[in-house]
Amino acid sequence: MASCSCININNDYWNFTTPGSGKVNDATIDELSDKKVSVVHKSIIEGTDKEQACSLKGLLKSMENAEFVERSTAEQKVIDKLIKSLCKIIGVEEVVTNNGGEEVDVIAEPEKIIYGCLDPTATNYYCKDNDCVDNKPPEGIEDVTCEYSQELSVENKYLFCNANECTQDTPGERVTPTNDIASWMNNGALDNDHIYKVKAGIKKVIENVQPKGIFLKSKKGFYTRPLSKQLINEFANALTVTVFNTKFNKDNSYKTFPYTKVTVYGGNSQPMGQFRIEPNKDRNGESDSIKKITMRDSSTTLNNRFREEVGTEILDPNHESGMIKLFGPGGKFEDVRFTVKDGKIVTEDIKEGLGLVLQEEPIGLAKLLK
């Protein structure tokens, strides 16, 4: 008779938090900074750590009595499968009888286990890095969490950060034409089209963005009314890529989307748009990851824009006096080195002699652009 025993193996006691999805693999381990069972299980079987294997086994045994497991035959089978794979690492304790008739426990060496993803559509499919006949894995491969990727193309550069200005040097995420790939891990809890559902939810939020800011007749990038469908779709691609890469990051998975700003640059490093992002708490990776997006301006971006726009007409001549105040002393954008004269963008040296104009009642950017 043989059993998978941890009696002679030191191990810690782990608690779990019931997952909202009702999936065993999505349960989080309290003592391991809320890492998912699926992530910890994969790490254990790849590292063959008997002590951790026993800790996880104990957690899974306690989970058997949880209501969400008891009412689901499928989740009971998941636990059985996870424990079975852990027992291959722990080893079995065989009870034998010696010549004197006394029963003696003998710890058997664990058998060598081969692990691999068994989904041919996954980026880590076993046969992609191992020898297989007819692209089919051999018998006895232990299935692990599969990894996937999907390109969502962009033409511009999307810089996500938490600073006032998102630049190439600001810590954050970058989505460009060369790395517009969303990556994720799937232990069976996600639908095949989950990424497209997430993109659809994000795109709907972007479609509700109200274009506001300093608009010129050149109408470059997102500085148009209304926003172009092509740029809305591209923005949705970039944000979806970042949502997936922050949600399924192997080193640090974020429950809430971690960035509040994004600046968009064209291939010529010209600012194409600037936005503030308001995420929904604990919904990263879902179709409602993002709650609201608003368009914004900043002095740095305006300086970068206007540097290439000297002589360009503003979109609405009636906004000229208001813009002059915004760029003048005490204005919201007094650091901008440009102003407006005769309905056109000019360099700051034209500000001399504007005292009379600046005595008029100040107005805010929101009022200005209504």
Give the biggest sheet. 5 strands, antiparallel
Order of helices and strands: EEEEHHHHEEEHEEEEEHHEEEHHEEHH
Within the largest sheet, what's the order of strands? 11-10-13-14-15
Over the alpha carbons, how many angstroms does the gyration radius reach? 29 Å
Q: Helical element count? A: 11
Q: Count up the domains.
A: 4
Low-confidence stretches: 351-370
Roughly what fraction of the amino acids lie in strands? 15-25%
Terminal-residue CA separation: 80 Å
Structural class: alpha+beta
Please tally the β strands and state the result: 17
The 3D shape can be described as elongated
**Helical percent range?**
25-40%
Question: Overall mean pLDDT score?
Answer: 85
Task: Describe, in short, the structure shown.
The protein is α+β, with helices and mostly antiparallel strands and 370 residues long. It has helices at 37-47, 50-63, 67-70, 73-90, 126-129, 194-207, 229-247, 299-307, 320-327, 355-358, 365-368, and strands at residues 2-3, 16-17, 28-29, 35-36, 93-97, 103-107, 115-116, 142-143, 146-151, 157-161, 173-175, 181-186, 261-265, 271-279, 290-295, 338-341, 344-347.
